[in-house]
Amino acid sequence: MLKKAFLISATTALVFSACGSDNSASPSGSQVLSCSANAISDDTFILEIVTENVTMTTTTTISGNLANIEYDISYDPEVSAAYVQQKCEENKQEAQEKNAQIICSDHSINIKEVEPTDISFEDALKSAENSCRQMIH
Fold this sequence. Notes:
This protein is α+β, with helices and mostly antiparallel strands. The protein has one domain (about 5-135). It has three helices and six strands. It has a six-stranded antiparallel β-sheet with strand order 1-2-3-4-6-5, covered by helices on one side. The longest helix has 18 residues, at about 80-100. It is globular.
């Protein structure tokens, strides 16, 4: 079940698992360069996290007791397609456990999932804003 800290754990885990330091063909920095959380409607907000080689945009819509979450992870062109495919396969394994949909290309991964939630839209947005503050400090 989605709780108040869901954005901190889910988003941070995805961003930092998307960033590696094992070789020059993979993203080299996991330092967050920018982070923003903005409401785009009464029930939807976008969280954007930019690191050295990866941009992740998370769109979350809270509808009643469900959260529709879409993660768009875009890798810079210098990141090898093989590295992105490796991350795609890792995410596909987790997606099966969560009944999520995942689509991958040479330099991007898109994940869509629906989770039960007990958090209001306002609290979810505040959680995202707090996540940004924690990541950039």
